[in-house]
Amino acid sequence: MKVRIPTPLRSYTSEQSVVDADGATIGEVLVDLDTRYPGLRFRVIDEQGRLRKHMKIFLNEEATRDLGAAVAPADEVVLMQALSGG
Q1: What is the largest CA-CA distance in the chain?
Q2: Which domain holds residue 61?
Q3: Non-local CB neighbours of 41 within 8 Å, separated by 6+ positions
């Protein structure tokens, strides 16, 4: 499946905005991404295995925080990171 990567995390993916990943759930996709791009998962998931507060995940244009949500090879996952500044 295709996973869209936000600009702040593209340093982990050699600046690629869209990458491939495998998995049956969002959580498995994140584990696969971390295998391919070490360190990426830690920027999305905290030490307790929960989605970080500043991260959003969209599955086929619908927001989800459920890491157990089922995904299929034809699905698109979008990782979004809230930016702050002043």
Answers
A1: 40
A2: 2-81
A3: 30, 31, 33, 34
CA 80 – CA 13 distance, rounded (Å): 15
pLDDT digits (tens, 9 = 90+) for 49-83: 999 999 999 999 999 999 999 999 999 999 998 87
> Which residues are paired to 30 by β-bridges?
none
Does residue 86 form part of some domain? no
CA 61 to chain centre: 13
Tell me the CATH number at 64. 3.10.20.30
* Ranges assigned E (strand) in 1-86: 2-4, 18-20, 55-59, 62-64, 76-81
What burial class does residue 85 get, using C-beta atoms within 10 Å of its C-beta: 0-12 exposed, 13-18 middle, 19+ buried? exposed
